Amino acid sequence: MAEIKIKKGLNLNLEGAIADTTVADTECKSFAVIPDDFTGIVPRLDVKEGDSVAAGDVLYHDKTHPEVKVTSPVAGRVAAIVRGERRKIEAIVVEADGSGRSRRLDVAQAGTRELLLESGLWCAMRQRPYDIVPNPSVKPRDIFITAFDSAPLAPDFALLLKGREKYLQKGIEVLASLTDGEVYLGCSPDWVPEVKGCVVNTFVGPHPAGNAGVQIANVKPVNKGETVWTLDAVTAARIGELFTTGEVPFGTIVAVVGESVKRPHYARCTMGCSMASLIGNDVDEPGNCRIVSGNLLTGSHVQADGYLRFPYRQVSVITEVANPADFLGWASLSPRRFSIYHSFTRWLLGGGKPARFDAKLNGGERAIIMSGEYDRMLPMDILGEYLIKSIIAFDIDKMEQLGIYEVAPEDFALCEFADTSKLPLQKIVREGLDKLYKEMN
Q1: Following CA atoms 232, 161, 121, 55 in sequence, which dihedral angle do they give, to the nearest 10 degrees?
Q2: Which helix (H) or strand (E) holds 270?
Q3: d(CA 110, CA 116)
Q4: Which of 149, 184, 231, 296 could form a disulfide with 235 if both were Cys (CB 3.0 to 4.6 A apart)?
Q5: Residue 393 burial class via C-beta count within 10 angstroms: exposed 0-12, middle 13-18, buried 19 and up
Q6: How far apart are CA 332 and CA 99, in angstroms?
Q7: What is the model's pTM?
Q8: At what angle do helices 425-440 and 384-393 cross, to 10 degrees?
Q9: Do 402 and 386 contact (CB within 8 A), yes or no?
Q10: Does the structure show a pLDDT above 80 at 145?
Q11: What order do you get walking across the sheet with 126-128 strand by strand?
Q12: CA of 260: how far to CAs of 98, 124, 294, 390, 417, in Å?
């Protein structure tokens, strides 16, 4: 086991952390699968409104690779297929019937790859380059599993995987059979599971030390022509349980956190459940809050009547606008204002007190003026500022030279937070990867 120290980055100490680790059960009748959560798949429906499905039944498959399938998390009736512009499928809503019916797969007869594809768990993994659902016809060089999350208010993986260590071990064994290389497990020194058959590395340092891209860059970077897969340890345990029991485990534990949550807590639920079942009336000022499915840096903004999004382990709630008429605005000297620099007086009080944030942008987009901002937040051997510029210009040669194949949008989330220019860096990277994928394929 090797220890890797990460020096660049920033830990955000925010209000709304969980004090009591008791896990509360939730009840929910409405669930949804959001195709946008599974980048790289062009959905073709296998069901229509009114159809009855069991947990694990196929809802849709990929147009290019029909063997790649997305399955229903619960048994019930397909209540709605929500479409947007140009009839794009935005959500498939399933109303649970409470029967508990579950599709059982034949572990003994099916091959490893075929079973993962049929179960829908294949779509819970990601491929680098392009940060998409893996191409089933390509064998990965290596597989990287992340066993901790360093994002703000992130859940504790030790709690998420408590009692499931045997399934994590089985999942590692299954994944090892899919590559001729190594399976790497990235852990925090605070929790290192006792597993065999993989290379364990511990990462010490600030966020984004828990990101798969940062771990790959500091262990064995991705070069042009190479493919690696990434997933979290919770997904690896689900894979292990599938190959042990023959059923896909759709249950999950979610951290409901944020300064606007009256009682931050862990909730036991099913993937894709409604936000109402997780939050209910446990939010201050419901009409003035921002609900994010995921962490505040990379999560998806959802409405109060929305649904839990992939990767199904965190919901963050903050105030939409805390002080609409803040005295002096950005020039305020208030110690409550946060800055990564010494722009406000907060730094005089030390970094121990949790900060409060709202969803205001506090400025508008402008040209990239300050050099070196991205480099302070990006512990990877790439020039983030120049890479962003090459993506905007869509200079393929420059993008390749500057490491486009190594990155995913989440790797630039902290850069986006610190960016004086207020550029949507994650969106820029996502669009650049999508355009590059179309160009190269």
Answers
A1: -150
A2: strand 265-270
A3: 9
A4: 231
A5: exposed
A6: 57
A7: 0.94
A8: 60
A9: yes
A10: yes
A11: 2-5, 199-204, 183-187, 142-146, 228-232, 126-128
A12: 32, 30, 15, 39, 20
> Could you state, in order of their start, the residue ranges of all structural domains in the chain?
2-245, 373-440
CB 400 within 8 A of CB 224: yes
Cα 295 to Cα 183: distance, rounded to the nearest angstrom = 26
Q: How far apart are CA 158 and CA 50, in angstroms?
A: 40
* 199-222 pLDDT per residue, tens: 999 999 999 999 999 999 999 999
- Alpha carbon of residue 17 to chain centroid: 19
Let me know if 325 is exposed, middle or buried by CB neighbors in 10 A (0-12, 13-18, 19+): exposed
pLDDT, position 325: 64
pLDDT at 233: 98
Torsion angle of C-alpha atoms 171, 174, 178, 182, degrees rounded to 10 = 60
Rounded alpha-carbon distances, angstroms, from residue 22 to 263, 264, 311 = 12, 11, 21
Query: Strand, helix or coil at 7?
Result: coil
Could you say which DSSP state residue 118 is in? H
Q: What is the mean pLDDT of residues 102-130?
A: 94
pLDDT tens-digit map of 232-287: 999 999 999 999 999 999 999 999 999 999 999 999 999 999 999 999 888 888 88
* Cα separation, 117 vs 115, whole angstroms: 5
Confidence of residue 345 (pLDDT cuts 50, 70, 90): low
Nearest-angstrom CA–CA distance, 403 and 407: 7
| Amino acid present at 435 | K
Alpha-carbon distance 423 to 132, whole Å? 23
Taking the C-alpha atoms of residue 215 and residue 245, their distance in angstroms, rounded to an integer, is: 31
Token reading at 386:
């120049």
Distance CA 430, CA 424 (A): 10
- H-run or E-run covering 254: strand 251-257
Sign of torsion, CA 256 262 268 269?
negative
Q: How far apart are CA 355 and CA 108, in angstroms?
A: 52
**Exposed e or buried b for every residue in 157-167, given b needs 16+ CB within 10 A?**
beebbeebeeb
Q: Is the pLDDT of residue 414 over 80?
A: yes
CA distance 145 to 230: 6
Average pLDDT, the chain: 93
